[in-house]
């Protein structure tokens, strides 16, 4: 059987970045934007390794990988998502639904090592021995490479610059310079919708805040808004322990994020 890996993610920028990382590997890479499409692909072209995002519409990553385990039990199953989703996947790890959890943004060398090990059919560490995602590790079931840890009152981490043109340049290499402006346009529209939702959540739906911060934090890093991403991660990390502090800081975060989105928009109009 030909070596084959299936990547499932609804974010085209993530898919493009992973394609670039994996393009010189000795296996065929298939991609799907959702769980149902991925199941149909697997029916036609079974894969030895399946990597899925956690947060997807209609069918989330755990639901999808549970179906994969039932129908293709020999396939290695990898979960790719933000560090905050680790609690949601811990039981899936223990139950054997998920073999590896990889946090966004990923480290390329660790990603390649874990995929190589998955193809070899070896798991370096049992789920019961898995360290929490705050502990960096090499070739283990959980890899922690998040750019920002949850806020710590005793020692604040320095924040990155507001905007990184280098990140945007690398994304242009991944997706093509002609494609990048349309992707940025989609991101800007989605980001403004997310910020509007955060404004509403601040007064009406606190339970939606963590989800929106996760989504916005992950996508912002892909488009070079590094400080926005770091701040979103910090607030997301506080959602389970100090929601009043999150809600108090949310209006300022929304204002700051809108200013950064404007910087990105100006950069696109001037440089692209």
Describe this structure in words.
- The protein has 272 residues and is an alpha/beta fold.
- It folds into two domains: 4-143, Response regulator (Rossmann fold); 165-271, Up-down Bundle (Four Helix Bundle (Hemerythrin (Met), subunit A)), CATH 1.20.120.160.
- The protein has ten helices and six strands, in the order βαβαβαβαβαβααααα.
- A six-stranded parallel β-sheet has the order 2-1-3-4-5-6, sandwiched between helices.
- Helix 8 runs antiparallel to helix 9 (226-238) and helix 9 runs antiparallel to helix 10 (243-271).
- The longest helix has 29 residues, at 243-271.
- The protein is globular.
Strand content: 5-15%
Low-confidence stretches: 122-159
Give the total of domains.
Answer: 2
The CATH superfamily of the largest domain is known as Response regulator
CATH top level of the largest domain is: Alpha Beta
Give the radius of gyration: 19 Å
State the separation between the terminal residues, measured CA to CA.
44 Å
Global structural class: alpha/beta
CATH architecture of the largest domain: 3-Layer(aba) Sandwich
């Amino acid at each position: 059987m030909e070596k084959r890996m299936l990547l499932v993610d609804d974010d085209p920028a993530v898919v493009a970045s992973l394609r670039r990382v994996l393009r010189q590997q000795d296996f065929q890479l298939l991609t799907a934007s959702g769980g149902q499409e991925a199941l149909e692909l697997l029916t036609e072209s079974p894969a030895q390794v399946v990597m899925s995002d956690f947060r997807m519409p209609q069918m989330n990553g755990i639901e999808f990988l549970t179906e994969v385990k039932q129908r293709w039990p020999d396939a290695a199953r990898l979960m790719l998502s933000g560090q905050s989703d680790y609690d949601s996947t811990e039981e899936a790890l223990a139950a054997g639904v998920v073999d590896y959890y990889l946090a966004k943004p990923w480290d390329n060398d660790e990603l390649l090592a874990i995929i190589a090990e998955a193809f070899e059919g070896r798991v370096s560490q049992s789920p019961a021995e898995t360290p929490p995602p705050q502990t960096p590790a090499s070739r283990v079931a959980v890899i922690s490479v998040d750019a920002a840890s949850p806020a710590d009152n005793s020692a604040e981490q320095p924040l990155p610059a507001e905007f990184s043109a280098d990140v945007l340049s690398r994304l242009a290499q991944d997706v093509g310079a002609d494609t990048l402006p349309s992707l940025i346009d989609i991101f800007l529209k989605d980001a403004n919708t997310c910020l509007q939702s955060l404004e509403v959540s601040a007064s009406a739906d606190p339970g939606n805040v963590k989800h929106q911060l996760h989504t916005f934090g992950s996508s912002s890093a892909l488009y070079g808004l590094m400080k926005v991403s770091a701040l979103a991660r910090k607030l997301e990390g506080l959602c389970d322990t100090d929601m009043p502090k999150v809600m108090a800081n949310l209006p300022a975060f929304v204002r700051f994020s809108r200013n950064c989105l404007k910087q990105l928009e100006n950069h696109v109009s001037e440089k692209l």
